[in-house]
């Protein structure tokens, strides 16, 4: 009996080229898929710091039109970009304009439990409807359980226009700590 082993046929150069092409194409496609799926995640984890992102001052429209020494609720919007997700965020602040180049800008949330307070002109006070905190026009606590004055926000006035840096603070504590 003879052992009959089929002899392997030599590979044709054409077969080798096809196989190498398919391997290369597969690796390229998988590489592109991996890049496009992980790139947003990596960008989210390690955002590229843009110039001025530490202090984003956002323009508050109509500042020149508000009356002096009258608390005015002002709303402005900001386009927030996180990785590939863009969202339009609407903020509001209370502004007391003292002069064309001087103002007090207050975060609209009560320092007690972050409820939204309002200006009650007939009493000349900011009042929080949740637990009865009361603040004067300068933001000082004059009644209720609020542990600190109203939180002021950094601002600048350039060319007669108001720009505000939005910040959020921890509620219910005597210290002003940014969240």
Q: Which overall shape is indicated by the principal axes computed on the Cα atoms?
A: elongated
Based on the structure given, which CATH architecture of the largest domain is correct?
A: 3-layer Sandwich
- Number of helical segments? 1
Structural domain count: 2
SSE string: HEEEEEEEEEE
| End-to-end Cα distance | 86 Å
Hey, roughly how much beta strand do the residues contain? 25-35%
* CATH C-level category of the largest domain: Mainly Beta
Our Rg estimate from Cα atoms comes to: 31 Å
Largest sheet: 4 strands, antiparallel
Strand order of the largest sheet: 5-6-7-8
Counting helices, strands and paired strands, the structural category is alpha+beta
Mean pLDDT across the residues is 88
Output the CATH homologous superfamily of the largest domain. Rieske [2Fe-2S] iron-sulphur domain
Contiguous low-pLDDT stretches (5 residues minimum) are none
Q: How many DSSP E strands? A: 10
Instruction: Give me the CATH fold name of the largest domain.
Output: Rieske Iron-sulfur Protein
Helix content: 10-25%
What's the structural blueprint in terms of helices and strands?
Blueprint: H1 13-45, E1 57-60, E2 72-82, E3 85-99, E4 102-106, E5 118-120, E6 125-127, E7 134-135, E8 141-143, E9 155-158, E10 161-165
């Amino acid at each position: 009996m003879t052992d009959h082993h089929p002899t392997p046929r030599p590979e044709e150069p054409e077969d080798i080229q096809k196989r190498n092409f398919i391997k290369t194409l597969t690796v390229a496609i998988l590489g592109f898929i991996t890049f496009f799926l992980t790139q947003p995640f990596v960008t989210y984890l390690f955002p590229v710091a843009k110039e001025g992102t530490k202090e984003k001052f956002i323009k508050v429209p109509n500042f020149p039109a508000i009356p002096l020494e009258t608390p005015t609720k002002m709303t402005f919007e900001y386009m927030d970009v996180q990785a590939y997700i863009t969202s339009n965020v609407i903020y509001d602040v209370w502004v007391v304009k003292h002069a064309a180049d001087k103002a007090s800008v207050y975060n609209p949330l009560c320092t007690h439990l972050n409820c939204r307070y309002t200006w009650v002109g007939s009493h000349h006070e900011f009042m929080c409807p949740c637990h009865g905190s009361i603040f004067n026009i300068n933001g000082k606590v004059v009644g209720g359980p609020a542990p600190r004055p109203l939180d002021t926000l950094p601002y600048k006035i350039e060319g007669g226009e108001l720009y505000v840096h939005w910040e959020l603070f921890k509620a219910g504590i005597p210290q002003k700590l940014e969240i």
